[in-house]
Amino acid sequence: MKSIARSHAGFAAMAAIFLLVVLAALGAFMLTFSNTQQLNSAADIQGSRAYWAARAGLAWGIGSIAAQPAATATCPASPTTLPGGSASFDGGFTVAVTCAPATYNEAGTDRRVFQFTAVAQTVGAPGNPGFVERSLTATLER
Questions:
Q1: N or C: which end of the chain has fewer CB within 10 A?
Q2: Tell me: the pLDDT tens digits for 20-67?
């Protein structure tokens, strides 16, 4: 009887060590997965903020033309960095708005078209963690 008990001695310790290693690996995987989900969620929020900052830039550009008389409307200085050239939108975004005017003739009447592009981005360079950029374009005919 002693020889059978002696041959199985240590089996429980090996099983416990194996179980601890498997549970530790599972915990590490869950921690990494949770961290990745958090970073993706933060990037989605920043992307939404960048989109709305670019929309604000387009609204500013269109408003600057709409406030002028149609016959003499001119583009603002291009590119214009909003707001005020030095501050930034919520989330650390700067918005650059460009305007390209064009004139065409339709049935003997000159029509003016203004092409606006607004680019909202965070500080940094593409490829860096946390860098977000959104670009929107709109056309206004006067």
A1: N
A2: 999 999 999 999 888 888 888 888 888 898 999 999 999 988 998 988
pTM equals 0.73
Domain count along the chain: 1
What span, in angstroms and rounded, lies between the C-alpha atoms of 130 and 67?
37
C-alpha 18/C-alpha 140 separation (Å) is: 68
Would you say 36 and 61 are in contact if contact means Cβ atoms under 8 Å apart?
no
Pull the structure tokens for residue 16. 């416990």
Distance CA 140, CA 142 (A): 7
d(CA 130, CA 126): 9
- 46 — phi, psi (to 5°)? -65, -35
